[in-house]
Amino acid sequence: MSTVELSFKLNGREVSLSVAPDTLLVDLLREGLGLTGTKAGCREGECGACTVLLDGTPMNSCLLPAVKAQGREVTTIEGLEKTDGSLEPLQEAFMGEGAAQCGFCTPAMILTATALLKNNPDPDEGEIRHALSGVICRCTGYRKIVQAVQTAAKARS
Amino acid sequence: MALAFEKLHWHSKLEVAEYLVPASLTEALDMLASHGGKARVIAGGTDVIPELRSRKLDVSVLVDVSRLPDMDGIEADGDDIVIGGGVTHAAAAASPLIQDKASALATGCGWVGSPQIRNVATLAGNLVSGQPAADASVPLLALDAEVTIASAKGERVVPLSEFFLGLGQTALDPGREILTSIRFQALADNQGSAYLRLAKRKALNLPILVCAVKATADGGNIASAAIALGPVAPVPFRERAAEEFVAGKPATMETLTQAGETATATCNPRDSLLRGSCDYRTEMVKVFVRRGLTAALAQAGCTVK
Amino acid sequence: MQDKTQEKTKTQVLTREENELARRLRTADKPLTVAGTSIGRRDDPLKVTGKLKYGADYSAEGFLFGKILRSPHAHALIKSINVKKAQELEGVAAVLTAEDLPGRNGFGAIIPDQPVICGDKVRFVGDGVALVAAETETIAHQALKLIEVEYEPLPGIFDPRDAMAEDAPKIHEGGNILSDDKMVKGDVDAGFAEADVILERTYQVPFLEHAYLEPDTTMAIPQPDGVMLIEGPMQAPFTTRRNVAPVLGVPINQVRVRQIHMGGGFGGKEDSPIDLSCRAAVLAQATGRPVKITLEREEVTIQTAKRHPMIMELKVGVKKDGTLTAFQGVIYDEQGAYASLGPKIPPAGGSHVHAMVMMPGPYEIPNVKVDAYLLYTNHPYGGAMRGFGAPQVHIAHEQMMDELAAELGITAVDIREKNAFRLGSQTATGQVLSQSVGLRETLESCADRFKWDERLAATGWVDQAHTKRRGVGVAMGWYRTSIGTNGDGCGAAVHLHEDGSVLLYSGITEMGQGAFTVLPQICAEELGIMPEDVRLVKPDTDLVPESGPTVGSRSTTLMGNAIILAARQVKESLMDTASMMLMVPTERLDAKGRKIYDRENPDKSLDFAAVAARAMAAGKRMIGQGWWTPPVPSLDGHTGQGSPYHVYTYSTHMVQVVVDVETGEVELEDYVAAFDVGKAINPKALEGQIEGGVAMGLGYALMEEVVLVEGVTQNPSLQGYLVPTMLDVPDIQPVILEVTNELGPYGAKGIGEMPNIPATPAIINAIAQASNGRVRRLPADPERIFWAIKEAGGPPQD
Ligand SMILES: Cc1cc2nc3c(=O)[nH]c(=O)nc-3n(C[C@H](O)[C@H](O)[C@H](O)COP(=O)(O)OP(=O)(O)OC[C@H]3O[C@@H](n4cnc5c(N)ncnc54)[C@H](O)[C@@H]3O)c2cc1C
């Protein structure tokens, strides 16, 4: 099978590699690059656990052919890591509010909320719920997640 | 038996031999042509990828049209609105022009899947997938949109009334043609539109019933109305009988209620275990036609009495 | 609400056995410092950075991919099976059929009636008929396709009532009735004779999928010394080990099971890991190589356990004033193809018996008769799912309470207040509730917080066009702590080191509920140190003591007690040592905040670490072992009388909804859920359990259902199987009450399952209150609500 040459910015760093043409971004990240913070929960865009940011916009990496990343910027949960080990306000807030239970949706929730707060630093509850509605959480009932985003928004401002 | 096998044994991976990313429309059309119909266009991929994974779709070459230049515009052109073949639901839902001059479409696009889905999925893909209750297709049908289709042989314009041929089937040859733009008339001051959707949950849900209405008011009367429904037939469905019934009538609750009754005579939803029974959806057609007309007329400045 | 004053003062009436157990647990009367606080979850930093590893995150390099060939028939004989072509495919390491198995061809959480590989017959669509291990997933898939199986289809049973017919095809050799249980108290005929109103109703609930977000994964890794190592997300490592060993034909000590953090379980990862582990293990044994089986989402839905569907027939009598006089119930509890967690483990274990015991609800009823049948069908099988039979029967009794109230013209709260359990009440099994009965308190505080009276008065039309109506609903619930078997013991070990740090060994698993945070909290509280001084050793059957499964809302309570007892043993060493160092008698010593001090002269204190070092040097006991078994359960096999579970958690939920009476759509506006939890060890984690549980109950009420046609799952993916999204779940307000459980750690009771139980009927009741539409067959999706309103002759017209 042929391969495709691919280069893109991943969590701030340029990467170049060759991939099979039918590789999905979720598998490239998880299996090819060892970034397992991105989860595969349903592989059809229904659970949102595979969410990554493509040029800052949340997308389901299970539905994205890896080739679509060509020349673009991909941010995964690992991309929030800072050299000094400190955490983003959203990460702090998710911990403080108890917004993570099993944690499987947490990276996707945090990334989606990251994109939201970038465009809308002070969202109301309805805006938060709409923006995050593409990620299913089966554990928390969502309340603490909404609270965490509100807390982080306050902390940032 | 083969189908039963695929339904019980699932894949995590796809099987596609080639993924092509053309830089221009001409190159894209050439790529399609050179594969003699065996290649398939992919835009957002939100329909194509799940179908490849479930092995419902079997193609060996994908041609990605999402980076073609000049496909992502949303523009006014005289009285018309023109939407590029690469425009996503997120862009359409957020467009002030569409919100203002085709609100039914903005609403419909805003309902598609989830934010993640809307950020990549396109209106063109929604049309070409040919699903009867697709959230952009149904309002576009009510807006009397037409689409421009390019192939190696040239361009043609097809009104949506002739576009949907059957379940999953359209006038576009998915192995050879590309939908480059969508065009329809912007709503005039005495016109309004509405989009209603019934579902079991509030995000990420296939609808039980959708209804798009465009209405033109003439004082307290209904000058004309376009009513599109889905899924009540194998294709997005124009409810002509009800449209004819209301044309020229006073905008009263009685007219609208009767329009709903009229609509049930011609549309024919299937019994579906997951979406709902024919009987229920027939009842809902009545409600939605009435409510859709009411909302569209209100937007047109006409309060139903 | 009238009659607010209740007999809260009535004293506890513990049995002698309970008293003895309580005495062992009782702690010196000092305020808690660590338990009772909302410390953050231990693994949070790993979760928010994406570093926490789940089963599928472990590299499969060097592993073979395991796959299961599934039966397309619901019920059929296997006439022949030919694996030759599959074996010859390059990259295939093994193709196994029933003949190739080395040991017992059966597994199951209670009875091993499910074949690892079906030999002569299949019993549901999805049953495993062959196993393949190959170098890649694609090759494994191709190999499956090359296996030729010839079936002779048999008539299938798809309604549990059909399973009882004399001439019904037999799904298992012993017949289709897996369990037939009875509960009889008083004389129902006499009770009905006293009643002013008698209602008969049938309620029905479908199969439910747990829809934990993480699909199942298991790894079987043969070790150089012959041990089979199993790793995967699972709730019951010991049950898994108990099954894998005989399937491999080896002693239990030759199997080692390690739990990997779960991406949700909800009871579902109690038995699906048994299935996958047995299958991965036989492939690993056959090939001598590590094997990984990962299910795709659709395969999880098709293959793994579900919540049991039930058809519940109720006949209930009530006096004009709302007093219940008789309750008669029949449960057709659909087990599906295999026994899983359904059948009885005497005296009161298994989901079926639990459903029977809970069926009359948390109400005093003098005359009760319940007949409960657990029936095999050719559907997927019912297992444990957050409530273990209780959610189903609550849907029946809580709707019935509302229907009775409506018939009598009293409010839904009044009828509950009239009959709700109080301290000293006798349950339908004749058990006297001897302690920790906060049910009425939950009703009272829920109504206060929700403003029930005001809201009830304000229900009615929302809009002028009369399309939408607002309504309120209430439901109460009870749920056991512990599992009702004699073997419900739970072990823990506490290892103290000379620097004061502690290792805590527990076999209780973490699936998001917070056990790995709460258990160290209890250990730290008991020792007087900080939670961060305690490192928890993750469940590994080679390292941790047998703790039983992480189910039945038993973790905090049973394991908590075991930890307290274990910690006491090392604490004794510490106190002895400190007593010598401080020259103060041990009775005067206390430990808190890493200090051991003289209670009468708190300045006289020692660092915990210094005492630990001295204790070690003095050869004192540094290892504590705790074992806790709850009071021995009882339940008579013929009459269903006895004390099946030692303590219960109680709850009341209230919800306000708006129903679109023209379409059947529902909007949830407000939600209050009150609980008597005994003691909240970690209030924030507890709130999380409540909010998540309510959301799950909401799904059950409004949208969730595994749709089956002739045994074929119609909605295996999350596109068809709907769970609530962020836009569907309202802001849930938890109210936490603490009515001490004398037999729990610091008074705690179980909470994991309770929250989702009353949620479902509360919502259904609110819909009916708003619209007249009473949906007796779930889910109450818009269509069912629409028809229910029609059937009732339309919405209320006021
Ligand atoms: C989780 C999920 C939820 C969804 N929810 C909804 C929903 O609520 N409502 C709804 O309507 N749909 C929904 N969909 C379906 C899908 O998102 C839409 O139909 C979407 O608009 C398809 O667009 P796309 O760009 O992703 O198309 P693709 O998947 O890329 O393509 C779809 C089809 O169109 C063809 N095609 C695409 N672009 C062109 C073009 N320019 N010229 C010619 N052919 C083209 C492709 O060959 C293919 O046949 C959902 C899908 C998912 C995965």
Describe the structure.
The complex is a heterotrimer of chains A (157), B (305) and C (798). Chain A contains 5 helices and 5 strands. In chain A, α2 crosses α5. With 157 residues, chain A is an alpha+beta fold. Chain A has a 5-stranded mixed β-sheet, with helices on one face. Chain B contains 12 helices and 14 strands. The longest helix of chain B is centred in the last third of the chain and has 22 residues. Chain B has 305 residues and is an alpha+beta fold. By secondary structure, chain C is an alpha+beta fold. Chain C has a 7-stranded mixed β-sheet, with helices on both faces. In chain C, strands 7-15-14-13-8 form a 5-stranded mixed β-sheet, with helices on both faces. In chain C, strands 16-17-25-26-29 form a 5-stranded mixed β-sheet, with helices on both faces. In chain C, α11 packs across α12, α15 packs parallel to α16 and α18 crosses α19.
Topology at a glance:
The complex is a heterotrimer of chains A (157), B (305) and C (798).
Chain A lengths: L3 E7 L2 E7 L5 H8 L18 E4 L2 E4 L12 E3 L13 H8 L9 H14 L5 H7 L11 H14 L1
Parallel strand pairs in A: 1-5
Antiparallel strand pairs in A: 1-2, 3-4, 3-5
Helix pairs in contact in A: 2-5
Chain B lengths: L1 H7 L9 E3 L4 H10 L4 E4 L5 H6 L7 E4 L9 E4 L2 E5 L4 H6 L1 H6 L1 H9 L3 H4 L4 H7 L7 H6 L3 E6 L2 E6 L4 E3 L2 E2 L7 E8 L5 E8 L10 E10 L2 E10 L6 E2 L1 H7 L6 H14 L11 H22 L6
Parallel strand pairs in B: 1-3, 2-3
Antiparallel strand pairs in B: 4-5, 5-10, 6-7, 6-10, 8-9, 11-12, 12-13, 13-14
Helix pairs in contact in B: 10-11, 11-12
Chain C lengths: L15 H10 L18 H5 L15 E7 L5 E7 L1 H5 L3 E5 L24 E2 L5 E7 L2 H10 L1 E6 L6 H4 L13 E9 L2 H7 L2 E9 L11 E6 L5 E6 L3 H12 L6 E6 L7 H20 L3 E4 L2 H7 L6 E9 L5 E13 L14 H8 L8 E10 L13 H19 L3 H8 L19 H12 L1 H6 L2 E2 L6 E14 L8 E7 L5 E5 L8 H13 L6 E4 L17 H28 L6 E4 L2 E4 L2 E7 H10 L5 E6 L18 E14 L5 E11 L6 H20 L5 E2 L2 E2 L18 E6 L18 H16 L10 H10 L7
Parallel strand pairs in C: 1-12, 10-11, 14-15, 19-20, 26-29
Antiparallel strand pairs in C: 1-5, 2-4, 2-6, 3-5, 7-15, 8-13, 9-10, 9-12, 13-14, 16-17, 17-25, 18-19, 18-24, 21-22, 22-23, 25-26, 27-28
Helix pairs in contact in C: 7-8, 10-11, 11-12, 11-19, 15-16, 16-17, 18-19
Bound molecules: flavin-adenine dinucleotide.
Flavin-adenine dinucleotide sits at the interface of chains B and A.
Descriptive labels:
heterotrimer; A: 157 residues; Ubiquitin-like (UB roll); DNA polymerase, domain 1; five-stranded mixed beta sheet; 5 helices; 5 strands; C: 798 residues; alpha+beta; Aldehyde Oxidoreductase, domain 4; Aldehyde Oxidoreductase, domain 3; 3 domains; 20 helices; 24% strand
